[in-house]
Every structure is written in structure tokens, then in C-alpha cells.
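User: I've been going back and forth on whether these two constructs are worth ordering. Before I decide, could you fold them both?

Assistant: Sure. I'll take them in the order you sent them. The first construct and its C-alpha cells:
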Amino acid sequence: LPDSVELVYGDVSDKESLKIALVGTETLYLNLNTTNWDENASFQPEREGIINVVDVSKELGVNHIMQIVGIDSSHPEFATKGMEYKTNRIRIPAMEYLKKANINFTYFHCSVFLDSFPTFIQGENFGIIGNHQYPVYYTNTTDYARIIANPKGNKETYNKAFSVQGVEGIVFPEEAKRFVRVYDSKIQVAEYP
């Protein structure tokens, strides 16, 4: 990061640390991910953590909170047949909490990032779980970074949600095959139930 960036520490499970970290903040961008699917856990960064951030932001007069939320929170039908995105049970209550907090918000419903594809590789397999029937309009982190810079200070984006996707829809197994042909042709796409 450039020298002009000031790094501050704040723990989303500790409101007092957030009060110190967020003093003077006008716009806040949240990128908190659900790392376990236990909706009964007493603390989830993407639920209680965001609620804590919203409470402190309201107290400190933060004007705008932007948040990345998966495309699945606006399109639950993208889940594989017979499956529900468990992350939404955790994510959506905090999204609703922010909507009711009287703080301007902008949600980015992002599709799958192509940059994440190497994480699907285990050994010689690119693992796909489930029967993917809907085309995905993939994006990447570089394009996404340009997109999220636009809403800062832009009142036209307040209290709205935007889908962030690419221009070509391809079902996941086909895109995985394209990827491994370029990335490493020795890798095989493996589909699991």
C-alpha cells in the first residue's frame, strides 16, 4: 500500500476497538466472509461482526457503508439443485440490520471471482461440488476494485444493491475446463455430488 494509507486496528468482535479504529471515518468498505456455516455459532464476523460495525458506525456518524455480499444473496436459485447457500442464513440478518440503521449502504452482489480458481485445485484435481445448472457470469478482483471505487461519495449509489458480474455466462464445469486448459492441462476437472 502507498505511504498515504494509514493502517488502523479494529476487531469486529470488540466494539471499543472499533470506536478507536473508525473515528473520523466517512465511508467504510466491508469485506467479511463467513468461514464456517454454523448459523447457531454465537459469533460470526459476517453477522454479529457487521452488527457491531453498524452500531459503532451509527454512533460515530459514518455516512456510508459499502459491503461485498455474494451473488447468492440476491439469487439463491444459483445454488446447486437441492442445496441452500448456508452463508445466506448468516449474512442476510446483518444485511437487514444495516438497511434499518439509517446509514447509507451500498451492496455489491458479486459473482464468482476467476482469481479464486486456483483454490479449487487439490493435487491433480479441480474439484467441483454439486450439479451446477445455471450459467455464472464470472468477474475478477481487478475489475471489482475499479467498480467499488465509483460509489464512494456518489449519492446515486446510496441504499442500493448492484450485481457485479462479467459479460459471458458459462456453467461452472465448462469454465473449470477452460481454466485448466490454460492453467495446467495435467489437472483434471472432478465433479463430486
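The second construct, handled the same way:
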Amino acid sequence: GGLLRDYKGDPICAFVSKAPGDDIFFVELWAIWRGLVLAANIGIKVIWVESDSMSAVKTINREQPLSPKVAICLKHIWKLLRKFNKYKVSHSWRETNRAADHLAKMAVLGSDVVLWPANFPRSLCNIINDDAQGKIYYRM
């Protein structure tokens, strides 16, 4: 799952997508790819991707070796990133990535769902409101 926000942090939309397979590294890359597809399709030109998977971030940024089993997914990510006028891919701690983590755990009908703010579940709205109010999250 993932959440797209504007430059002020206000939500644009969210997505929940079921990745094929169960390899955690691949699932992290799949979520990034899915978010990029959605962002490109709704006309976003500048994007800052944050992921709580340090390994995924380092691989996308070419800071660690490419795993052959995810090569095709990475090629799609790199191709999508070139469509944006400007992009950044960085790591965020899981505690500050609660909205995406919450979305990833949601049970949905179908394999790919896009949610618009008017249809966000209350639980997601609460997380977004906590973020907007500057709630401090402590690492466990």
C-alpha cells in the first residue's frame, strides 16, 4: 500500500495492491512501482518516494548490487522515474511511514484499489491527522 501526498502533506490518493509472490524485497519494490504508475497517470511531475525498506531505497538509488530476481521490476521503476521532471527516493523509518504500513495491511476486494480522500477509512484519516499535527513517533 501507499499514500500520495502533495507538497504540503495533504493526501491526494492512496492505493492497495496485491503483489505477486511473497518475497518481502520484491513486495517493497512492487509497492514503489505501483505508486509511481499511479503518480505518473494522474499527472504528477515531481515526486519524492519514501520507503521504510532501506534495501529497496539503496537498490533503486544504485547504492547496492542489483538482485537478479528483481531486475525486471527495477528496470520498470527506473524507466518510470525518468518520466518525472524531478524525483528523490529516500528511506523513512517505519514509525513515520504508518499510513503506507496501514494500507499494506488492509484487506480489499480485488487485487488493486485506489482510494480517494473522501473514501478513506477512518483509521487512515486518524493516521494522516496525527502526521499533520506533528505527532512524535518513537522507535521501538
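Notes on the second construct follow. The first helix runs from residue 24 to 41. The mean pLDDT is 91.
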